[in-house]
Amino acid sequence: MSDYDDDQFTQGVDDNPESKYNDGRGIQYFVSFQPLPPPPQPNEKHRKNAAKPDTINHTMYAHEEESLRQVLNAAIEGLEYEGKLDFKVVSGKLRTKNFSVTWSIMRTDFNKMEFAPIDDYDGMVEAATEKAKPTVGPEEEGAGAENEGLASKKRKLTEDKHKMAETMAQLKATYSCADKKCSSPTCYLGNATGEHVCLTPIHLNTWAAAIGSLFLKYRCDIQEAIKGSQQ
Questions:
Q1: Residues of the domain holding 113
Q2: What tens digit of pLDDT does each residue of 188-228 get?
Q3: Are 82 and 67 in contact (CB under 8 A)?
Q4: How far is CA 145 from each of CA 153, 173, 183, 199, rounded to the nearest angstrom?
Q5: Under the phi-then-psi rule, with left for phi > 0, alpha for psi from -120 to 50, and beta for the rest, what region is 18?
Q6: Same structural domain, 63 and 96
Q7: pLDDT band for position 231 (cuts 50, 70, 90)
Q8: Is 144 left (phi over 0), alpha (psi -120 to 50) or beta?
Q9: What is the tens place of the pLDDT at every residue in 40-65?
Q10: Cα–Cα distance, 22 to 134 (Å, whole number)
Q11: Quick one: 106 and 41 in the same domain?
């Protein structure tokens, strides 16, 4: 399933001590995979109202010291999917042929994040293990909205997430890196040396949260908040 171009990425931990989380089982992962319809035959088109294949879901646990390779292999194996789902790491970046990977942590701003460089995997583990019961998975639909007060709170969270997504998109557009020699799609070049500082999804998420605070405090334009956050 996996292929790595550097020994440092193949070093998993085979004999882990008992995990400190979830009664020794490790981080809990809710894995969800949405297969795509098979490609159409020649001279054939997909119907717009054609039903998507059923989503495949499963739950697994993995030790916090396990590598991205180990966790992805376990996730793919648990799907029991008939097709091939291969991946590899090239120059510190996760490469997949026919599927994409995103991750979310419930009740946080980490929603549908990508592994830009695979260092983001360490950030995901760090963010998950800050929880009493570390869990990686999508937000549960309708969870907690049992009364109007909770429903109102949920609506506000949804609005905040939309604002966060908008800010993230503007940050990515503002700091998009066109340098072909650079391995990162987003970089900060505002330092004295002109050195490329890689902006991972974790960095962008943290920055977007700071910008959101400025936006709420001063009710300014997002671009002005971006500039203000650099002061």
A1: 1-141
A2: 876 667 788 888 777 787 888 777 666 555 455 555 555 55
A3: no
A4: 8, 35, 43, 35
A5: beta
A6: yes
A7: low
A8: left
A9: 777 777 666 777 788 999 999 999 99
A10: 7
A11: yes
One domain, residues 12 and 97? yes
Alpha carbons 111 and 94: distance in angstroms, whole number:
18
Q: What is the pLDDT of residues 135-147, one digit of tens each?
A: 998 765 444 444 4
* Cα distances (angstroms) measured from residue 49 to each of 44, 45, 56: 15, 12, 21
Q: How many domains does the chain have?
A: 2
One domain for residues 12 and 27: yes
Of 111, 141, 171, the last residue of a domain is 141
Q: Last residue of a domain, which of 97, 118, 141? A: 141
Amino acid found at 168: M
| pTM score above 0.70 | no
Quick check: 93 and 36 in contact, CB under 8 A?
no
Element (H, E) at 158: helix 148-174
Q: What angle, 0 to 180 degrees and rounded to 10, lies between the N-to-C axes of helices 119-128 and 201-218? A: 60
